[in-house]
Hints:
By secondary structure, this protein is mainly α. Helix content is about 55%, strand content about 5%. The protein has helices at about 5-10, 15-40, 45-55, 60-70, 75-100, 140-150, 160-175, 180-190, 200-215, 220-235, 240-245, 250-260, 260-265, 275-280, 295-305, 325-330, 335-345, 350-355; strands spanning about 120-125, 130, 175, 195-200, 290. β1 (about 120-125) and β2 (about 130) form a beta hairpin.
Amino acid sequence: MFSRDNILSSFHLPTNMIKLLVYSLIGFVCITLGTLLVFRPDFLSTTAYRHAFRKGQQNHEDSEVEKILHPRNMTLIYRSVRERQRMRSERVRDVCAKLNATGRLLTRSRKAIPSHFSSFFVDDYHGVLYCSIPKVASTNWKRVLLVLTGMMNTTRANKLERKDVFEVLVPRFLSELKYYSMDAIKQRLETYYKFMFVRDPMERLLSAFVDRFHTTPVDLYRKTYGRRIVKQYRRNASEESLRLGHDVTFEEFVSYLLDPRTKSKKPFNTHWKEYYQMCHPCFVNYDFIGKYETLRDDADFVLDQLGIREKVAFPSVDRPTVKTSEILAEKYSQISAADIYRLWKLYSIDFDLFDYPYPDFNI
Length: 363
């Protein structure tokens, strides 16, 4: 039999010294953890753990670890989501009742045509209609719909590359409501689960500008919009800028939006088109109106309502390291208070319908 004393004596170390070493080790661990939590409070956060864990694990495993580390009380979350949804729906109904007399909106009193539903995607198998608004997590919702077709080589929506989604997969595998007959459209509007997502209009405008013209510049946008914007709103523009349209400023972009000639020539591009013009919330009785500001909970709720949460997960959204409010304040500081008011006026129906406050950038 080996006793504790025999084991200790075999190492030729006094018991007191062993105890001292053990206590020292424990103290070192406690001090290290304490220091990390004080100076790096994100050390044990879900985000920090996710980035470390993702290096060698699949996203599915990552989400499982996240659930263990930070279990979410879905009952309480869904209770909050339902209450928010009740308030959002009431808000839309009240504002629509107020605006119906203006004749500016597509309402149930006006005759609809298929082209009104150019932003709607259809999943006939699951009975779903989704109104897509660019820069409001629309790419991820299209990824989800693509996985639900059963035609993808993966069940993980975040594995679908952005470029493939837009250039190949969406045109080939997703159905658009505008191509249905009006009778078929009405039948789906009456019976399918209908949802849309919105975002603070000012934040979305900035996101659209940065994405289309700078972060992932699209030649089509530079040629179609960039060159025109530079030509009309920049004094003494260089030949290069006039030819390429590659260096549009945010101030010039806002001038383009506010110019009455812009909308008189053709409707806004969908990346800066008004929400009510795309999704017609006074005509379509939505089952769910989500917001980008509560995206995670709202997306989970929609998937749960559709009974597909076990089939597909909504892709995680990478949040910027700089606070959105700081980015907004910086960019909109370039815009005069008068033009900010005019921008608000331009998108005032969206602000009103979806209960967003008047923009305040401390300018």
